[in-house]
Specification:
Layout (H helix, E strand, L loop, with lengths): L12 H19 L11 E6 L5 H12 L3 E6 L11 H11 L2 E5 L3 H10 L4 E3 L7 H15 L6 E5 L4 H13 L2 E5 L8 H14 L3 E4 L2 H5 L4 E4 L11 H7 L7 H4 L7 E4 L11 H4 L6 H20 L3 H4 L2
Parallel strand pairs: 1-2, 1-3, 3-4, 5-6, 5-8, 6-7, 8-9
Helix pairs in contact: 1-5, 1-12, 2-12, 3-4, 5-6, 5-12, 6-7
The protein binds phosphoric acid mono(formamide)ester and norvaline (NVA).
Length: 314
């Protein structure tokens, strides 16, 4: 049975732990010049309906490092842009590729592609979720703290695809999450509800609030993301006004734990959601975080493409 990564909830908690462990191993292998090629001769298709720097390069290079290769398809250059259905496209891609990744607007498009394709489908970002990013972020936190247990994450800013993905992650993995957004910019209610429900089993403490100072108090990780996501450019002026006072700056970070790190999925907007001083400062781990996309995604690709992934990397 093929597996997809349409959203983080497609994985089990043990899968996420495996991805973190395997990412760590693949990173160490790469640094020491050793490398295995578990995806030799395999091909990944990547459809982009929105721009990308990190995701595109890290997936493409990741496939090559694993012995395979990637075919990058710009949304406006494939026949889907001229009306070929998602279902027909999914059938075609399944005949050529070993996995298909897509960055698009509607989550439903990923869901439909996954339902129609015989190969694993990976969500490389939708308006709703960014599961590959949050998996790399969990790996980054694990590298720093050695565990997710007992770690408090404060997310400050827009209740967007990253906020939804953090809710998924906390609910599943059982760490503490304080999520602060301005009123009217909360994450999606269905995602909040499912995270709170999962928290009853996982032991996560999930709090939603409209006070950034309260959210970051004693936090080990201070996380933020852009105030204007892709596809929201027409709302930019209003959003910049509504988020006034919500910048992650030195004063805010000083309220976090003494050894707190600052994370941002990037691209960052210095002087908007984060000050230059913080982004470029000593607590920032954003460059390591960006590198970790590469290793976490290699683990994701192996997990989804190789049925024997867990025997291969125990
Ligand atoms: N963080 C992230 O997904 O970056 P890109 O938009 O550059 O892929
Ligand atoms: N929330 C941002 C994330 C970019 C990686 C966006 O969707 O544009």
């Amino acid at each position: 049975m093929k597996r997809d990564l349409r959203r983080l909830l497609d994985l089990a908690r043990e899968d996420i732990e495996w991805v973190i462990r395997t990412a760590s191993r693949l990173k160490a292998e790469r640094k020491s010049g050793r490398s295995s090629k578990p995806l030799e001769g395999m091909s990944l298709g990547m459809i982009f309906q929105k721009p990308s720097t990190r995701t595109r390069v890290s997936f493409e290079v990741g496939m090559v490092q694993l012995g395979g290769h990637a075919v990058v398809l710009s949304g406006d250059q494939i026949q889907m842009s001229r009306g070929e259905t998602v279902a027909d496209s999914a059938r075609i891609f399944s005949r050529y590729l070993n996995a298909l990744a897509i960055r698009t607007f509607a989550q439903e498009q990923v869901d439909e592609l996954a339902a129609m394709a015989d190969i694993p489908v990976i969500n490389m970002l939708t308006d709703k979720y960014h599961p590959c990013q949050v998996l790399a972020d969990l790996f980054t936190i694990y590298e720093k703290w050695g565990s997710l247990e007992g770690v408090k994450v404060a997310y400050v800013g827009d209740g967007n695809n990253m906020a939804n993905s953090w809710l998924n992650a906390a609910g599943m993995m059982g760490f503490d999450l304080c999520l602060a957004t301005p009123k009217g910019y909360e994450p999606d209610q269905d995602t909040i509800d499912s995270a709170l429900k999962m928290a009853m089993d996982s032991g996560a403490t999930i709090e939603l609030m409209n006070d950034p100072k309260k959210a970051v108090a004693a936090a080990n990780v201070v996380y933020t993301d852009t105030w204007v996501s892709m596809g929201q450019d027409q709302e930019a002026k209003k959003r910049l006004e509504d988020f006034n006072g919500w910048q992650v700056d030195q004063a805010l970070v000083s309220l976090a734990a003494d050894d707190a790190v600052v994370m941002h999925c990037l691209p960052a907007h210095r002087g908007e959601e984060i000050s230059a001083e913080v982004l470029d400062g000593e607590r920032s781990v954003v460059w390591e975080q960006a590198e970790n996309r590469l290793h976490a995604q290699k683990a994701i690709l192996i997990l989804l493409i190789r049925e024997d992934a867990k025997t291969l990397f125990q």
